C-alpha cells in the first residue's frame, strides 16, 4: 500500500506538471486535525482547472493515479441524477487500498464553489485564484440549534412512523417494517441525538459523519441503548424490542432537548402512540 506521503507526492506532482490544473485543495478527514489517521481515510482532493472538457472527454488521464479496483463518476450517471453544478468527480478505489475522491472545478465557475468547506487546506495556487484559507476546523459541521418547529416536526414524524411500523409488524411485512424503522425513524432518532449533544455542548461540536462521535458524548447507558436499537432481524419479537428501546431513548432525549431549549413537548402523542403500540404488539403475539 502506498504511503500517505507517496500519494500526496503523486497528487501534487500531477498538478504541478499539468498546466491545465491551476490550484489544489485538500478537504475531508485528512484536513481535520481532530481525526485520528488510519489506512482507510480517503484522499479528498479538489483540482481547479481550465479547459475542463479536455479532462472529461477522455477519462484515461486518471490512470496516472494507479491501478483501480473500480471507479465511480457521479456526474456521468443517470441514477442517481447528477448535481449539474459544473464540476466533475472521480471516485477511485485503488488495488493497493488507497482511495482518491477527486473533484474538478472549472476555473470560470470557482466563485460558485466558494467559500470552501471549513475542512479545507490550500496546497497549491498557481495564479492566486483562491487566496489564503483559514486554518481547517469542524465549524461547518457543528450541530445546528433547531427551531421549535423543526423540533416539533421531527417528533411528530418519529411517532407517526411508529404507528406504521406497528402495522407492518402485525402484518408480518418485514420489508415495509424495516424500511420505516431504518430509513425514516433511524434518521429521526439520529437527528434528536445530534440536538441532544448540541444542547449539552452549546452547539459547539460536530457529531461526526453518521454519528461517529456519539460514543464521545452519550453516557454509557444511552450509548448501550442506542446500540440495542440495531438488534433486529427476521424475528418479529426482536424487532418489537428494538422498536421500544428506540422509543424509550427518543423520549428521554427529546424531553431533555425540549426542556433545555424551552420548547413545547407533546407528551400526549408519546402516551397515545406507546399505548397503541403495546396493544398491537399484544395482537401480534396472540393473533
UniProtKB/TrEMBL annotation:
Question: Transport as a keyword?
Answer: no
Cite the entry's keywords alphabetically.
Nucleotidyltransferase, Transferase
Q: Which domain of life is it from?
A: Bacteria
Q: Does the keyword Transferase apply?
A: yes
Which is one GO molecular function term here? nucleotidyltransferase activity
What's the short name of a Pfam family annotated to this entry?
Answer: Adenyl_transf
Know the name of this protein? Aminoglycoside adenylyltransferase
Give the species: Virgibacillus dokdonensis
